[in-house]
Design brief:
single chain; 159 residues; alpha+beta; SH3 type barrels; 4 helices; 5 strands
C-alpha cells in the first residue's frame, strides 16, 4: 500500500510540473513564433542584442532592418527578433490620425451674450443663493445645541 502512495505522489508531481512549467513555456514559444512569422515591412522591432530598427525586407528565415538616419541596413535571422514594438499598420493609422488632427479646424467657442432683460433676474437669483446658507443656519432649532453630561457639569462646577 505504501508503494502505491509514493508512485501516486510522484505522478502528481510530474503532472503539476507539466501544468506549471512546460505548458506555459510552450504557449510562450508559440506566441513568439507567431510574432516572428507575422513580421512585415515597416514594423519597428527590437533584437535580442538590443538593436532597434525598422523592417525593410522579410525573407523566409531572415529579416533586414534599417537602424539609423544613415539608413544602415543589417540582416538578422528571425530567431534574433525579441519583440515587435510598433506594427506598420498601427504606425500608419496613428500617423493618419495625427495628420487629420493637425489639418482639422479648431472648434469655435461660441459664447452667447446675455440679454439685457435677463441681467436683473440673474442678479436677483445670485443674491438669493448667497443669502440662502445664512437663512438655513438661522432656522436651526435651539435644541440642536449639545448639552454637557452630568460628569462634565460637575467638573465645570468644581473648576
Amino acid at each position: 500500500m505504501g508503494n502505491y502512495i509514493s508512485f501516486i505522489i510522484i505522478g502528481l508531481a510530474i503532472v503539476a510540473m507539466y501544468f506549471l512549467m512546460i505548458r506555459p513555456q510552450k504557449k510562450q514559444q508559440r506566441a513568439e513564433a507567431e510574432m516572428r512569422n507575422s513580421l512585415g515591412v515597416g514594423d519597428e522591432i527590437t533584437t535580442i542584442g538590443g538593436i532597434v530598427g525598422r523592417v525593410v525586407a522579410v525573407k523566409e528565415e531572415t529579416v533586414t532592418i534599417e537602424t539609423s538616419k544613415d539608413k544602415t541596413k543589417i540582416r538578422f535571422v528571425k530567431a534574433a527578433i525579441r519583440s515587435v514594438d510598433v506594427k506598420a499598420a498601427d504606425a500608419k493609422a496613428a500617423k493618419k490620425a495625427a495628420m487629420q488632427a493637425a489639418n482639422a479646424p479648431a472648434p469655435k467657442a461660441v459664447e452667447e451674450a446675455p440679454l439685457k432683460e435677463d441681467a436683473p433676474k440673474k442678479a436677483k437669483k445670485e443674491k438669493k443663493e448667497a443669502q440662502a446658507p445664512v437663512a438655513e443656519v438661522a432656522e436651526q432649532p435651539a435644541e440642536a445645541a449639545v448639552e454637557p453630561t452630568a460628569e462634565e457639569a460637575s467638573d465645570n462646577k468644581e473648576a
